[in-house]
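B., you asked whether I could sanity-check this one before it goes into the benchmark set. Here's the sequence:
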Amino acid sequence: MGEPSNLLLKLSRRLFAEGCDRDAFVAALTNPQPYPTAILWIQPRPVEVPFAIAPPLSWQPAWVDRLAIDQRPGQHPLHQAGAYYCLDLASVFAASVLTAMPGSVASVLDLCAAPGGKSLLAHRALTPHHLWCNEVVRKRVKILISNLKRCGLFDALVFNLDPQVLAEQLPHSASVVIVDAPCSGQSLLAKGDQALGCFHPVNIKKNASRQKRILASAAQTVAGGGYLAYMTCTFSPEENEQVGEWLLKKFPHFEAVTVPALADYASPLAEFPCYRLWPQSGLGAGGFTALFRHGGDASEPIHRDFLAANGMQIYGPAPDP
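And here's what the prediction gave me:
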């Protein structure tokens, strides 16, 4: 077991009132344990699933399976055939805010899309007429396109643009905007990965500023009556609850939306509804999620010239089933 840093211990005291909760949180980050993998079914689930499946959770969509810890779904032929997508259960938790939206939607914009898990979850949950996937880091665009293509999402458009460009060119255009924000990545420690400097105040402040910049652009692309989903894979309040509070103050026409399926995971660190999964839960490495709604009148102009000029269409034959 690794020794916790003073910064980690300080964070734990800010997050939890009870010493037992603080100890469990610190232990989850310093002594990583395996977490179950989830699979998102893109194609119809077969009658006989070739994996050991754990009982479903209350917030788990019907088209997601939680697997036993020792399963290796990425090595099965069904994976290569695009039947499903593998992801951390914490990603399913974060995207479960989408269940609070009514029915299908006209358009979804995933602003920080690579490697594609949130886009695929939104496609499955909301069946949008248009799916726009943006990734600002160019070297990550290839894996995004590869995953969308493998899973048969040939109607998706992929962009490699700064979010501010999309805010200027696609104002009030998306029914749903997803911001799976770049962050200090503290939950990576629970997986046994490295996240250098993830507890340092300078790093946290830098990430919070970047998140606010992305959210400011995201807010401008949401159509009246539409939704903005914000999520991270970190624990610092500066990157989570405080960013949500900033959004509500900066853009008062947005309101936070209660997600009934996540009631048991409500964060005690904010006055607005938002939700946390802790790494000591045993369900996933952890993260934060919140849903906001634009209170204005519905208006969704589709800027077809801009989309045609800047979007990368996914071509190629669908994988064999």
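One thing to flag: The radius of gyration is 19 Å. Otherwise nothing jumped out at me.
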